[in-house]
Amino acid sequence: MIRLASPSLRFVLASTFAFLAALPSHAQSNADDNTLIKLQHDWAEARKHADLAFLESFYAKEFTVGNMDGSESSRAKDLSMFSSGDLKPSVITDDEMQVHIYGQAALVTGVEHLEGSYKGHTGKFDLRFANTFVYRDGHWQLARHQATPIVTKRP
């Protein structure tokens, strides 16, 4: 057994090892990126099929939506739009996604193409979105969804 004579040297080594152990490995980060991208896909499918069980477990208790018109929706209001059938998305595709992980929180940004109906009115939208996730109890939950319409400028 090797003994380190200096308590300050032991402290420096212990601190260094603790710091290195806390850093995520590259492989771990890739797995989390893939997990969050898969969750985006699963969320799209759940919305298209009004899968309330998935949505209720996926949305964090403080989940909110920043709507395209600048208004805010609560978790309860978002769930009620799906349970009532008022909101019926038929197409939801995400691309240009980027994942940024910050410990127990993550930001997923991208572009979403959305087609469907709301209270009987049909529409198509291209949206730039930012979704904030939190990691709790061993899984990721969506805490905030913010979307802004992409307006194509005509010549």
Tell me briefly what this model is.
This protein has 155 residues and is of the alpha+beta class. It is 36% helix and 44% strand. It has a 6-stranded mixed sheet.
Mean pLDDT: 83
| β-strand number | 6
Structural class: alpha+beta
Percent of residues in helices comes to 25-40%
List the uncertain runs. Answer: 1-5, 8-30
Overall number of domains = 1
Major sheet: size, sense and barrel closure? 6 strands, mixed
CATH topology term: Nuclear Transport Factor 2, Chain: A
Number of helical segments with 4 or more residues: 4
Report the top-level CATH class.
Answer: Alpha Beta
| Mass-distribution shape | globular
Radius of gyration: 21 Å
- The H-and-E topology, N to C, reads as HHHEEHEEEE
Distance between the termini: 77 Å
Strand % is 35-45%
Keywords:
alpha+beta; 44% strand; globular; disordered N terminus; six-stranded mixed β-sheet; 155 residues; 4 helices; single chain; Nuclear Transport Factor 2, Chain: A
Describe this structure in words.
With 155 residues, this protein is an alpha+beta fold. The chain has a single domain, classed as Roll (Nuclear Transport Factor 2, Chain: A), CATH 3.10.450.50. Helices cover 36% and strands 44% of the residues. It is built from four helices and six strands. It has a six-stranded mixed β-sheet with strand order 2-1-6-5-4-3. A hairpin with a 2-residue loop joins strand 3 (87-102) and strand 4. The longest helix is centred in the first third of the chain and has 23 residues, at 26-48. The chain is globular and about 40 Å long. The termini are far apart.
